[in-house]
Write a structure and sequence with these properties.
The structure holds two protein chains of two kinds.
Chain A (H helix, E strand, L loop, with lengths): L4 E4 L3 H13 L6 E4 L2 H13 L9 E4 L10 H10 L6 E6 L4 H9 L4 E4 L5 H16 L5 E3 L1
Parallel strand pairs in A: 1-2, 1-3, 3-4, 4-5, 5-6
Helix pairs in contact in A: 2-3
Chain B lengths: L4 H14 L7 H4 L7 H121 L4 H34 L1
Helix pairs in contact in B: 3-4
The chains are: A alpha/beta, B mainly alpha.
Chain lengths: ~140, ~200
């Protein structure tokens, strides 16, 4: 089971969907959902500079376009990977499947891309099956359609 | 996480008497003794109820998401329709203005045509009048000239000139009167033509 998950998504309804799907699939016991990339940036900055390290989530799911935030999900991943010490499994969860965006996400260190849909559970299950590979750094970038 | 005997009893009593069960991720971390069948059954019931509740909530949330998407799509369609409507309204205003201008132009051309027709009719009338006056003047001058020549001839040959003399005198008076009348008419016609 994943120790803790952070979801960064501007759609509050999706927070509920994601939480229920994770609970039904027994993916994690600890899930925090926030609506802004600025808030996520602030949290990672705090964990990186002040700690405690164990408050940092094990896995981060980031929406591509986060309305109301200063920057998008790809920029947030870049910041987390390059400015805040990396060390988390991180990827995009979005309804978009734009190849250009996918390539950009790969370039900044995203490990996966999950395409949002009404039927999110099978994709989350597949992701969870591959999770060990992402955790130990052997898993290659994968798109869950 | 292990629970005390008192908490265990409390939870079981609550479940039995009020059908109140634990829910959420807490039930996934509770540990019960392998030989405690009652508590294990209780936990299974908790998990089952929690799972059912989450499934229902997931279903409702999805329906709400779907409705939201439909509403958003409808809103976008409405926006597009509204824009089309406004564009059509603007176009109709332009068309109305153009129609109004075309109508004004048509009315102006009609008025010009009516004026031209009127002018043409007047000109034709004046031309006709001028022609008649010229012919009348010619006739009068011709008669005057003929009478004068006849009078001169009678005087020259020494014939009785009384009749022709009074005739010539009357005719000369008539000619002078009519000449002024005709000249006045000609001037009037000329003045009217120049004015138009």
């Amino acid at each position: 089971m994943i120790e803790s998950i952070l979801l960064v998504d501007d759609e509050n309804l999706f927070h509920l969907v994601f939480e229920d799907a994770c609970s039904l699939l027994d993916i994690t016991l600890s899930l925090e959902a926030i609506s802004s990339s600025d808030e996520a940036d602030r949290l990672f900055k705090k964990w990186f500079h002040e700690g405690p390290e164990d408050e940092k989530p094990e896995c981060v799911f980031v929406d591509l376009n986060i309305i109301g935030s200063s920057f998008d999900g790809i920029e947030l991943i870049r910041k987390i990977n390059s400015e805040y010490g990396n060390g988390v499994v991180i990827g995009i969860i979005s309804s978009s499947s734009d190849n250009e965006e996918i390539e950009k996400a790969k370039a900044v260190g995203a490990q996966f891309w999950i395409i949002k849909s009404d039927d999110i559970e099978p994709r989350l299950q597949q992701f969870y099956d591959d999770y060990a590979g992402y955790r130990n750094g052997t898993g290659e970038f994968k798109i869950y359609r | 996480m292990k629970i005390s005997t008192e908490t265990r009893e409390l939870l079981l009593n609550l479940a039995e008497s009020k059908k109140v069960y634990l829910e959420g991720n807490l039930i996934k971390v509770l540990e019960v003794d392998a030989d405690d069948a009652e508590m294990q059954a209780y936990l299974e019931e908790c998990k089952s109820r929690d799972s059912e509740a989450r499934k229902k909530r997931l279903e409702v949330t999805r329906q709400v998401q779907e409705q939201n998407r439909e509403l958003e799509a409808s809103s976008k369609k409405m926006e597009v329709l509204n824009q089309d409507l406004q564009a059509a309204l603007a176009e109709s205003k332009v068309s109305e203005k153009m129609a109004s201008e075309a109508k004004a132009e048509a009315e102006r051309l009609r008025d010009e045509a009516v004026e031209d027709l009127d002018d043409m009719q007047k000109r034709t009338q004046f031309e006709l009048m001028g022609y008649i006056v010229k012919v009348a003047l010619g006739v009068i001058l011709g008669v005057g000239l003929l009478t004068t020549m006849l009078y001169v001839y009678v005087l020259t040959v020494g014939m009785d000139a009384k009749i022709i003399e009074s005739t010539w005198s009357n005719l000369f008076g008539i000619l002078l009167t009519n000449s002024f009348s005709i000249i006045g008419t000609i001037m009037g016609v000329k003045y009217a033509n120049e004015k138009n």
